[in-house]
Amino acid sequence: MSQTALLIELEPVVADNLNRHLGLAKEWFPHEYVPWSDGRTFDGPLGGEAWSPEDSQLSDVARTALIVNLLTEDNLPSYHHEIATRFGRDGAWGTWVHRWTAEEGRHGIAIRDYLTVTRAVDPVELERARMVHMSTGYSNVHSYEVLHSLAYVSFQELATRISHRNTGKATGDPLCERLLARVAADENLHMMFYRNLLAASFELAPSQAMRAVADVVADFQMPGAGIEGFVRKSVAIAMAGIYDLRQHHDEVLSPVLRQWDIWNVTGLDADGEAAREQLATQMSQLDTAAARFEARREERRARNR
Ligand SMILES: [Fe+2]
Ligand SMILES: [Fe+2]
Predict the structure, then answer these.
(1) Which of 156, 175, 189, 266 has fewest C-beta within 10 Å?
(2) Nearby residues for ligand 1 (ion, Cβ within 5 Å)
C-alpha cells in the first residue's frame, strides 16, 4: 500500500483511538508539582545568588538523567515537524498531532520549572545545552514511511516512560519522583495510541508492518541521541540501571512485540517472512548483549564494593 493509502485507511482507527485517548487522559497542571516556596532568585539582572553544586542534593547520575530527559522533551518542535509532515494536519490525524504536541509541551514545562526552583541542576549549563541541542534539531531515519514512524514512536514512547519513571526513583526525591511518574503516565497513553495504530496496520498490510518493525528495532536510537555527549551520558544512565539494554529488550521491545502477536502474524509475503526472521535474530542478539552488559556491570560493582 502507498503511504497515502495507509494514511487514509488508518484514519478511522486514528479517530477511534483519539476518542479513547481523550477519555483516558486526565487533565493535570505542571505548577501543582513544583515546590515554588523552595525557590530563590538567581544572579544576573535580579542580583540573587548564582547556582552552586552544593545547592543540589542529587547524585551526578540523577542530574545527568534529568538533563537528558528534559533536553529530549525540549526538542518537541522538531518532533512536531516530523509527525505533522508524515501524518498531516487534517482530520483525525491532525487533531491527534496537535493534541499530542500540547501534552508533550507540558513535560518540558513541568520538568524545567521543577529543576530551576529546586536548584537541582546548573541552570546556565542547562540553557546552553538546550540551545546546542535544539539548534541541531531532530530527524528520524525512517521519517518518510508511515509504518516505520508508527513503529518507532510505539517503542520510543515506552522507552521515555521507563526512563522518566526510573530517573524519578534515582533522584531519591519523592517530589521529583511524583512529577516524573505523572509525566510517565502520559507517555504510556501515547505508547498505547501508536501501538494500537500499528496493530491495525498488521491487519491492513502485514508484510509492510513487519518490515517496518524489523527495520526500526534494528537501528533504534533514543530520541535524545543527538544531545552533546550522549554516549557518555547514556553509559552512566545504563550503569545506574535507569535505562539499559536489559530494560530496552525486556520492558520496551518484548512487551510491544507480544501485543502485536508478532510471531503468529499470518499472510506474510517473502519479504514479510524475511523481516520477521531478521527481527528474531535481532532480538536474540540484543538479549545476549544485555546479558553481557549486566555481567560487566556486576563485575564493576563488585570491584567497587
Ligand atoms: Fe514527553
Ligand atoms: Fe509522549
Answers:
(1) 266
(2) 104, 107
